[in-house]
Amino acid sequence: MPANFLAALRREPSGGTPVWFMRQAGRYQAEYREIRAKHSLLEICALPDVCTEVTLLPVRQLGVDAAILFSDITVPLLAIGIDLRIEENVGPIIAEPFAGAKDLVRLRDLAPSEDEPFLEATVRQIVKELGPTPLIGFAGGPFTLASYLVEGGPSRQYLKVKGLMWQDPALFRRLLERLADLTFKHLAAQAAAGAAALQIFDSWVGSLTPHDFALHVLPVMQDLFARLRALGVPTIYFGVDTAGILPLMAKAGADALGVDWRIDLDAAWRLAGTRHAIQGNLDPALLLGPWSEVEGGVRRVLAAAGSRPGHIFNLGHGVLPKTSPEILRRVVDLVHEARAET
Ligand code: CP3
């Protein structure tokens, strides 16, 4: 019996703990590697048939309770003409990083039906082929997108983007607002085409102090989630290393918060408050270990969630390329069975 992901997001009885994995389609799968040998990552995102096949792979192989659109947080940036590439084992590289107010004009309005016409077509096709399994649409969070644009690529310390935030807070705010509008339009197009839930990957927002998050980012997120609420689909707000800002993230207005493994779920729930569903949070590195360790880890996550309604089992971050598909399948079965035992 599949567990009901959408009911869990509403903190309603879900017939067991639903489970899906961030990056559940990717290089750990032989079938994905075969497709990637023929198409670049961004080609896959723009070809509806291929993207549908990749999105459905983990649903069929693993028995997860939700699909996530196979895409990347850089897709809407490319759609408005930002010159970037994705370098293997590195991440997005921006040809001309954002350097000042003159670069704001490059962040023009996104019109999904013209700028990324494949998006709605792909979501419609996936939803049709999925049947009752819900599809999660997603986009990057404004701060995380800004971090790539300003740093020019992945970063360890985010010195440039933080520097901009402190030196010119008004410009930083305008940058985040432009990116929030991009994120909103990209998500609204996915919801209109049938996505049943929306996740914002604000992966690097945990690099901020609570003060800076509250002052510079939270107001933008509150506006964004207020706009998303009008779409009528539940939302998830995810970041890495967010234990210190979780009470503030809880004020953003999402239905669920996604957390990584650096905090226990019961502690996360205390910080987030009972009005949120919580998604997470097995350490993805644990999946490279022996099954006995994996099993212990899964059971500890479930125990920390306790009997509260509104737990969605996931990893604390994406599936690592060296993960065995078989281990993931066993995790799905264990989550479903363990809950049935209680
Ligand atoms: O969850 C899913 O199954 C959907 C797939 C997905 C991708 N990117 C495909 C992808 C998702 C949810 C993303 C989001 C994304 N992209 C984030 C936020 C989530 C996170 O991981 O924190 C970020 C920061 C990016 C930017 C990005 N794109 C990075 C850092 C990388 C990794 C570079 C590498 O080679 O490891 C990418 C490339 C990318 N996006 C891959 C996949 C499956 C790598 C595999 C490939 O190139 O085929």
Please provide a written account of the structure.
The protein is globular and about 55 Å long. The model has no long low-confidence stretch (mean pLDDT about 95). It has about 350 residues and is an alpha/beta fold. Helices cover about 50% and strands about 10% of the residues. The two termini are about 15 Å apart. The chain has a domain of about 190 residues: TIM Barrel (Alpha-Beta Barrel), CATH 3.20.20.210. Strand 5, helix 11 and strand 6 form a beta-alpha-beta unit. Helix 8 packs across helix 9. A seven-stranded parallel sheet has the order 1-4-5-6-7-8-9. A two-stranded antiparallel sheet has the order 2-3. Coproporphyrinogen III binds next to strand 3. The site of coproporphyrinogen III (CP3) has 22 residues, from strand 3.
**Tally of extended strands?**
9
Tertiary shape: globular
Bound molecules: coproporphyrinogen III
The CATH topology annotation of the domain at 40-63 and 67-195 and 197-233 reads as: TIM Barrel
Oligomer: single chain
- Put simply, the count of helices is 15
Q: Nearest-angstrom radius of gyration?
A: 19 Å
Mean pLDDT: 96
CATH class of the domain at 40-63 and 67-195 and 197-233: Alpha Beta
Q: Strands across the major sheet, in which order?
A: 1-4-5-6-7-8-9
Uncertain segments are none
Q: What can be said about the biggest beta sheet? A: 7 strands, parallel
SSE-based structural type: alpha/beta
Beta-strand fraction estimate: 5-15%
The first-to-last residue Cα distance is 15 Å
Task: Give the CATH architecture of the domain at 40-63 and 67-195 and 197-233.
Answer: Alpha-Beta Barrel
